[in-house]
Every structure is written in structure tokens, then in C-alpha cells.
User: Fold this.
Amino acid sequence: MTPVCGGIHDGDVTLKEDGDVTGIVDGTIVIEPGLRTRISGIVKGGVVVGKDADVLISGIVKGGVRNDGGSVTITGLVSD
Assistant:
């Protein structure tokens, strides 16, 4: 997959294409419906997973995960 969010991002990020999140997001990540995404970075907000999205979280999410009808696999750390 293509990196779609690397480096450091201040604020929320909405993903509109398949890919990897490897950086630090100082906000919430919103994953649009139907996307395939791997999160191995650090998310200081939460993650919102759209309908039919397929998400692997192997990184750190500090704000919890809201699943709106997708598939979520967590091998990393998630806290609220």
C-alpha cells in the first residue's frame, strides 16, 4: 500500500484512498467507506472507520476507535 499519511500532522485527517498511516496525527483519523488502511503510526485522537472499510491498527491510538460498519483488526495499543 501507498503511504497516505507520514510525518507529523496537526489536526484531523480524512483518508480518501487506500494506504498506510506511518506518522503522527495530532487529531482524529476518519477513514472513508470501503478503504483499506494500515495504521502503524501514532494517533493522538481517535479513529473513525467507515462502512466496509478494512483497517489494521498496529500502532498507537490514544482516543479510541469508532467502527461504523467496517472491519477492524487491532494488534497495537488503543485507549480512550
